[in-house]
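Notes for week 9. Today we move from apo structures to complexes. The key idea is that a small molecule is not decoration. When we ask for a structure prediction with zinc ion present, the ligand SMILES becomes part of the input, just like the chain. The input block below holds both the sequence and the ligand string. Read it once before you look at the output, and try to guess where the molecule might sit.
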Amino acid sequence: MGRKPDEHVDGCRGSNGSPVQPQLLSRINEASVLRAIRQYGPSTRGELTQHMGVTFPTVAKAVSSLLDARLLEEFDDAMTGPGRPAKRLRLSREDSLVVGVTVDVRSCEVAAAGFDGVIREGTQKSFATPASYGKLLLAIVEHVESLRTDDVPILCVGVSVVGLVDYRRQEIRLAVSLPFLAGKKLGQDLSERLGADCALVHDSHALCLAEYVYGEAGNLDSFAVLDLCSGIGLGVMVNHVFLTGHSGFAGEMGHIPIVPNGRKCRCGRRGCLETVASEWVLLDRLSERLERPIEFDEAITLALKGDKRVRSELNRLCKYLAIAMAHVVNLFDPQCVYVTGRLFDRLPWLRDHLVARARPATLEPAFDNCRFLTSSGTNLLGAVAAAISAVTSSRVHKLNDTLSGITLAVARRQLAR
Ligand SMILES: [Zn+2]
């Protein structure tokens, strides 16, 4: 069994009885301190000792190393009553810099954050997605460079991309909505140009990370994020382990076959879920019915006016998406399924309609255990979360899969040079 996220090491033997290298042991304890502060908030060394169940010197040593690395910062807690204020530790805000980048079909975003994950005011920028890979690299590098400050190095750049990411090969393998990304090692290419580590993450996985790090899902052990964006994506956390599969392809919900010999999908196959339950097929079908091209905003306006053709197409979309949702609940038994996408943002009642349709298709005990909510996460927050996870994991790289439950394509500076 893998190590649970809140476990740590205070002894000197690994789970197989073999001696654990002292340096590795220190790194594991440092990662445990970071996780404890993320979980419990700003803490004193004494509180960390209690949270982690290890000795005070073990905590003090790990904290000292993390202060040196600028991942933690210390502040006086004036709220503890009379006497000397306690020194509290929090994730570094001012002395650290991580960058989040999103690459989507229509636009890209860039923002800077501290290691605490809070996006810095005034740093969020967006730009139209360039038409070629070379121009995309240039645009991202230019925007990230503008966020640099002289004395604070970039710890990591998290990049959320609309495409299938092979986390082992650090390569985008399939990008049906942005084909020039296919076969590209975007993390590595950016790392070479920026001289900083880059963590590449599939956009649906980014949403899952965002919900875990920023949303209330941080208190859950199992949840799923169903993402109706340019296609249909799925991010899943089961028992605190973020599921990526062997290479990173887990969660490709949009391309499960659902209609034998159905409509042609953007992936080249026929009858995928996307061909009956995605935003693009909704607009395609509405354009056919109205006998003219129709864009998203007009479809929403018509839906709000009660247009019968749009309503019936939305009904059809929900019929199939409900089947996908039933699969998710039956397969993973999540405590919560977060539904996300601009369709649900603009038509909030659609989520309730979807859940009502999913109920009869889902095993009752699993359905009754599960809540269905709208996600508050964004790809940009997910990209920042990916960067932070990569920094934490890099301190225990030999155990990153079991300690953090998160394995991403991280291009390291030393590899890129
Ligand atoms: Zn497909």
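The two ends are 36 Å apart (CA to CA).
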